[in-house]
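dumping this here before i forget
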Amino acid sequence: MQAYGGKSQYVKWAMQEGVGLSSTNDSFFFDPSIRTYFKNYIKTVLTRKNSITGIEYRNDPTNFGWELINEPRCMSDPSGDTLQVSFFTCALAP
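structure:
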């Protein structure tokens, strides 16, 4: 069950936008359009202000770290997407 969409949801959104992809979830790791969608999501979460404290999540000292994806199940990452997304996240939330 894909309760929250995960990789397959990003692939579905890209296909709906007319991006020519295979239907495999591994497109999540290789397609630049999907990478942009995911980075926008990460930026939205990191720059969101806590409604109680008024502190952006990226600056909140109670946040220990960020899990970018749970159990990615990608056999390889020749595009370097995982590292690129990690650098993007670190730049926003050092």
